[in-house]
Amino acid sequence: MKPGVLRGYSKGLKKVHEAGATTEYSYRIVFQEFLRSLFSKEYNVRIIHEPSRETFGAPDFKISTETGIIGYIETKVPNVDLHRLPKRDKSQIKRYSERLDNFILTNYRDFILYQRGEKVEEVSLLDEDFNLIESNVDKFNRLIQRFLSFTVPKIKDPEELAYILAKRAMILKDVVLENMNEDEQLQYLYQAFKEHLMSGMKKSEFADAYAQTVVYGLFMARFMIEGQLTRENVAFRGVPKSLRVVHEIFKYIASDLPDYLEWILEELIAILNNVDVEELKRRFHFGNGEFDPFLHFYETFLAEYSPNLRKSKGVYYTPIPVVEFIVNSVDEILKEKFGKRLQDDGVTILDPATGTGTFLAGVLDRIHRNIKGTLFQLYLKERLLNNIYGFEILISPYLVAHLKLSMVLNQWGIKLKDDERFKIYLTNALDLMRERGQAGLFERALDKESEEADRVKKETKIFVVIGNPPYESKKIEESWGSELLKEYLHGLSVEQEKNKGVIQDYYIGFIRFAQWKIDQNGKGIVGFITNNSYLDGIIHRRMRQSLMESFDEIYILNLHGNANRGEQDDNVFKIKQGVAIALFVKLREGKHKAEECKIYYYSIVHDAGKTTREEKYEFLRNKSWKTVEWKELEPKEPYYFFVPKDLSLEGEYSKFPKLDEIFEVYSSGVETGKDSALVAFSKEDLEPVIRDILNPKVSTAQLREKYDIESTSGWRFEERRAKIVGTPMKPSNFKKLAYRPFDWRWVYYEPKILRRAHFKVMKHFLADMNIGIVTERIVPKMRLLWDAVFVVDTISELHLTGSKSYIFPLYLYSDDGKTRRPNLKPEFLEELRKRYGEITPEDFLYYAYAVLHDPKYRKRYAEFLKFDFPRIPLYEGETFKRYRDIGEELVKLHLMKVDFPVEPKLVGDDLTVEKVKYDGKDCVAINKTTKLCGIPPEVWEYTIGGYRVIEKYLKGRKGRKLSLDELEHIYKVVEILRRTIGLVKELEAIEPKF
After folding, report:
1. What would the pLDDT profile of 145-170 be if each residue is shown by its tens digit?
2. Euclidean distance between CA atoms 580 and 514, whole angstroms
3. Is the dihedral angle over the CA atoms 832, 833, 837, 840 positive or is it negative?
4. Domain count of the chain?
5. What range(s) does the Type ISP restriction-modification enzyme LLaBIII C-terminal specificity domain occupy (predicted)?
């Protein structure tokens, strides 16, 4: 490099600086001339400069040759430290440096070169006064040479291509999101998507959909177009016209795009022009057994592009062994029960959650194996293209599905014409199109797609519904699908109706939709893999009954894998929620009694130990509907469980009175809406928070930032705060709260701000002395042993005994708090007096509390304790007295009404709780240097509500330093639990008599 070029650059910048320049643009003209002098003639390089950028998105300079893009340069003002950029600039540079292969950042004096996401060179060419630093000239020359000589080898590996495209898609998404408010065309597309596809679509979701559409549309074009891609041929030939929606989006690409979109589009085209197309096609061949190249490509892309997207949308792509088991089983059932095969006339097939088309590809493969020779092409053109349907709401997997199925056909020597397509529609399976007025071309394309999809939803007779519905545990919005779901709510209790959100989970919506379609046809099959919670969930009982009324035979293959329940076996997916395959078979039209349906069950997990993912795949490879050793179940009302249950003691247990039949008044516990801010370890900790909330001078935004208070479903912080802001703080509102077993905290008990205060019940603990039993109605399935009971004499929190705790006060107080009466139903009190003479309400509570702690009771009635409030057996007089006496001791212990000295056994002096770990013998470490000793294993293992009591208490104080009071409290609880264990052994020794 000629020294004169560098000195000229130095001189030019000095001149601009002396003229009083303050923006980076003032220096950019000098820099552009410097770049031209550096290498444009010698290296035949083109320098493209964005002269005036109002929008944010494109780097300042693009350096390219006739054969492609070399790299990009971004400039900042000379006085900025490139290592201490302002927040906005820092975010921008992070985006460029991590997602562009060859990128220079400069402030005209200092230069940093990034390649493949790594900083590889850095040099200061000029000092702060723009004088040339002679000693760094050679280093600068090396940086420029390295920048210019950067090349990307031909891309042959699909995984590498997915990774590279994901990086660019991230940029595209960001620039669309940052500029869409000012871009009329993007606003038009966004509004069209909202009106026609996803009514609640956020701008970020649109930017994501747009970015993935462009990337996958270009990816599809790479397979469709011979030779080099250009914006023009991509727009008009890259996407089949039959895919109307995507075709209209790509017509926009051929128009005069804004700079912030044009550069990244050209970058994407350049990348795809650098692909070894023939090798790529070879690698995307479906000849490798269970390997789905398109699925692998898409999952690799998603893992880099947005790891959280899959989880947020509940998108988990189905392993091939699962697909083959379901498809093969459906074909066998068709043959055995209906005398048909998948390819036969009248066998219409729908995948309502198509994803990348794995199930439909499996259907095509099975049919191809059923039909030998050239006959398959005839079946395809005249029957299958009209009989196979799919719905997909996410546009990128929708595109991949179309491309995948086309490639599957190509392998068999079949090519679809431009006007031919599979009937996979871009639509929400659980909603219908709404009436609209005038529409543009893109909206008309969406409308046409929606009209055809709605015709399938409402009118087309479907014989087979297969697939893997989404795992998104989010409530289905008010829609046609949510109306269908009301079938599963009929007959549920008021309390269960409150929890109907569980029924509105997406996977349940898809099961209901599939059931409705088969009912509409009068006969048929559903083959799904889904969340398995509906098999024995109490809230799902009407759902199970409804399915039994529709279908004649139901086959459940329980694949388990529920880490949330503590199951040790692997999941067939990489998720924590257990799953099951269901085959629902309808042989005759109309509904019938649930008892007429035959239920068959098989569990893939046995007592032999952990079943690995590969072992489950091997089972699915080697089995199908015909060869699984099904066990027939006999589900009975009211629960109709789809899993084996030992209910042989139901007649005995159901004779005992249930807690909600014994007590008049009860409710679930207090729910604040934001425990981390509204619940504290001490009154002193809570007071400043409440003072700020009540202070009108403290804004809601300040409170959010200071205390991390965000609104949640059913609790809008701004609205709740507005009801009390400006009012004086009331000392009497600070109340002790039974937060967890033996863990009392403080709450500001003001119903106006709490999410659920349950004042009608809690007031009976505020008026005067009271006592109450706390338990659960439905115990989480992960809990192997029932332990959901505690006793309180204060108001209690929702999760005191686990998932959802209910409190049953012993007494009810008058409004003035002066009188009280027992909260026992009169008829039950009368029954007690007939049996036991004059006993007090306390006598019964002590007795019941002891019964609920008896290991014999917990074991004998374990199955029933999982799905309703406990029932209390009424033993004969002497047995009653023995239980009552032990129960009184337990209550006094658990309310900590018994005094005894304790002596903490401490090793170390740092009482900050960091990581809690028990040594299995005597000590629990709370950090690297300190242990609490003298805690026997049986005490450490003692649980209430599914949690080890001592461990829960310590983990609840993680990051805090234990006070002396807390330390002594822990050792009191240790002694209480030790005594509790002794009393429980006494209970176990009693032989109850009725």
Report:
1. 999 988 878 888 888 999 899 999 99
2. 16
3. positive
4. 5
5. 661-967
